[in-house]
Design brief:
The chain is an alpha+beta fold and about 575 residues long. About 25% of the residues lie in helices and about 30% in strands. It contains 14 helices and 31 strands.
RNA sequence: CGGGAUGUGGCGCAGCUUGGUAGCGCACCUCGCUUGGGACGAGGGGGCCGCUGGUUCGAAUCCAGUCAUCCCGACCA
């Protein structure tokens, strides 16, 4: 490709509306342009990256026995009603009405469609297992699109759906997909960690996410992982064991204490001269519009996803002070589980508390030295609703948990019969009995993977694409296009490279060298061949974008050297 | 939806407080010069100042409404 003909435009300045590195670089380097919030045009450079990633996905999915198909973006309301998700999925489901007044939705995911298809096409266990996938634009009307391609409303996704006759089959497919995903991301040059996660709106029993770990840099998820075993989980799912609460006998007897204006856990600990872990903290949440009290050890935080699951609620949020007074008649700051007539959920951490401090729903008073089933009933519902923290003990070994940010690029779910039962998608087993399909689903954010790669690999000058997903492998830069020898040499090397299968761009623009070098760095061509002053010695320069030395190479060896560099692991 | 901010040529911004015919840098076009890390000189083109309404002799500037975008939270590939 000739740069003079390539449809791209680099920007010297960072666009004002881009916050994230990947977003900034994608816009600056001419990969994407925003159409409207969360919706982007992929320019030719970007499309090449997308095709590279998609290609790797196709190869690995096919190798794992999956078959590609393509389903429609527009989906009819009736199918979503069959699973009940027309109501449940919420506003994220982009609903539209056609000219006949029929309702539909732009597909945010395709469980309903694939299940309806397989229900009609597959009747016998003999036709199972099967795994079908597509790479397709998805639309989710996100509450708040952000971070450029990391969270768009329209995005490219690979989604696969497996159908099995039994759990063992599902397990096999699940493992196959886990392996395929590991291969896919490895081949994309991305190190990922498979972590346990909450299964959210897609549902199902078991799910794992594939995270590109970004340390403290960026990413929307917190991942907790063990420093000595392979336990890793999204913070919305991570379990942990904690150091015990420090309640050692400061209050041998229960006693009501005046605590005027002492409301926060911090203030209480100071007031009583105790550790925060010796306090039982009471919080009011609104779960599906009803107030609920959540109890947790004072030094700990609630994990809202866990609480939501423990309650079986669809929607949950913390209540404001005014709301607490209004819905419960209780006084914020002095809340406690005693004599409350709303649902109470206790975190496991409170069970161990002895002679602790808690509110008793009396203004300016707390109870010290409280004990369960003495002064206060232990709530019936006890669950893990606690946010695991770094430093906690791993749930599976004596190791310690550490925390890192992560970008979720893939997700695999065991759906079981969640969809097939509701949609009456059955097959006949070997005994002639009708059974619902056992399903799994497996997603990869294709466009997000590209953005995640940039988040992970960039420097102050631009993108450092892994070779496998770079839009081109190399760029040939003639320093001065009006120098005929430089130009003809550059052309020759360019053609040699193309002939040897290196995807190459020649920067034939009549620009000063500084401009070309800056653009090459920004766009992130993994290898640059510079044809300039060293030509007098019969040499050109070969340089890897990630750094390392500039190699002076005799021109007839240039193509071979580039090929070598491309195959090596250090680009 | 709650909290915060911003809308001025393609991009980044100033001007607004204190109303008076819209400005800078980048990019773009022409000519010259230059060619190893975003050169330089000269000339040039391009703006419904987000939109609607109001105040005023006069509004980018003041007022009201509205729309859009971005950041923080609930969502997730």
């Amino acid at each position: 490709m000739r740069m003079t003909g390539l449809f791209f435009n680099t920007l010297r300045e960072t666009p004002a509306d881009a916050e994230t590195v990947s977003h900034q670089l994608l816009v600056r380097a001419g990969y994407v342009r925003k159409l409207t919030s969360g919706i982007y045009t992929y320019l030719p450079l970007m499309l090449r990256v997308i095709k590279k990633i998609s290609g790797i996905i196709r190869e690995e999915m096919d190798a794992a026995g999956a078959q590609e198909l393509l389903m429609p973006i527009l989906q009819p309301e009736e199918l979503w009603r069959e699973t009940g998700r027309w109501e449940v999925y919420g506003k994220e489901l982009m609903r539209i009405e056609d000219r006949h007044g029929r309702m539909g939705a732009l597909g945010p995911t395709h469980e309903e469609i694939i299940t309806a298809l397989v229900r009609d096409e597959i009747k016998s266990y003999r036709q199972l297992p099967i795994n079908l996938y597509q790479i397709q634009d998805k639309f989710r009307d996100e509450i708040r699109p952000r971070f450029g391609l990391l969270r768009g409303r329209e995005f490219l996704m690979k989604d696969a759906y497996s159908f099995d006759a039994d759990e063992a089959g599902l397990e096999e497919n699940y493992q196959k997909m886990a392996r395929a995903y590991t291969n896919i991301f490895n081949r994309c040059g991305l190190e990922t960690r498979m972590v346990r996660s909450d299964s959210g709106a897609i549902g199902g029993s078991v799910s794992h996410e594939f995270m590109v770990l970004t340390g403290t840099q960026s990413g929307e998820n917190d991942v907790l992982y063990c420093d000595s075993c392979d336990y890793a989980a999204n913070s919305n799912r991570a379990e942990s064991r904690m150091p015990p609460a420090d309640t050692n006998g400061k209050f041998p007897e229960a006693k009501e204490v005046d605590t005027p204006g002492i409301k926060s856990i911090e203030d209480l600990a100071g007031f009583f001269g105790i550790e925060q872990s010796a306090i039982c903290k009471s919080l009011i949440y609104i779960a599906d519009k009803k107030p609920v009290m959540a109890l947790i050890r004072g030094d700990r935080a609630i994990e809202e996803t866990k609480l939501k699951n423990a309650l079986g609620a669809d929607d949950i949020r913390i209540a404001g002070d005014a709301e607490i007074r209004e819905c419960t008649g209780l006084e914020p700051g002095f809340l406690g589980p005693a004599g409350v007539n709303i649902k109470i959920v206790g975190d496991e951490s409170i069970k161990e508390l002895e002679n602790f401090v808690t509110g008793i729903n009396k203004a300016d008073k707390h109870l010290s030295g409280a004990g369960w089933n003495r002064e206060i009933e232990l709530p019936e519902t006890i669950a893990d609703i606690r946010l695991a923290q770094p430093g906690d003990i791993c749930p599976e070994c004596p190791g310690k948990l550490e925390i890192t940010r992560g970008i979720e690029v893939g997700n695999i779910f065991k759906l079981g019969t969640k969809y097939s039962e509701k949609m009456k998608a059955n097959f006949t087993d070997e005994n002639g009995r009708e059974k619902p399909f056992i399903m799994g689903c497996y997603g990869i954010g294709v466009s997000r993977t590209a953005a995640a790669a940039i988040e992970r690999y960039h420097d102050k000058d631009g993108i450092l694409w892994p070779m496998a997903i770079a839009p081109y492998h190399a760029v040939v830069v003639p320093v001065n296009v009006s120098d005929e020898l430089q130009m003809s040499t550059a052309e020759k090397i360019y053609n040699d490279l193309l002939d040897s299968g290196i995807e190459t761009v020649i920067d034939d623009r009549d620009e000063r060298p500084g401009v070309k070098f800056k653009d090459a760095d920004l766009i992130g061509f993994p290898i640059r061949i510079t044809v300039g002053k060293t030509l007098a010695e019969g040499m050109v320069e070969v340089k890897s974008r990630v750094g390392g030395e500039v190699l002076k190479v005799p021109l007839e060896q240039a193509a071979a050297r580039v090929r070598e560099l491309k195959e090596s692991k250090n680009v």
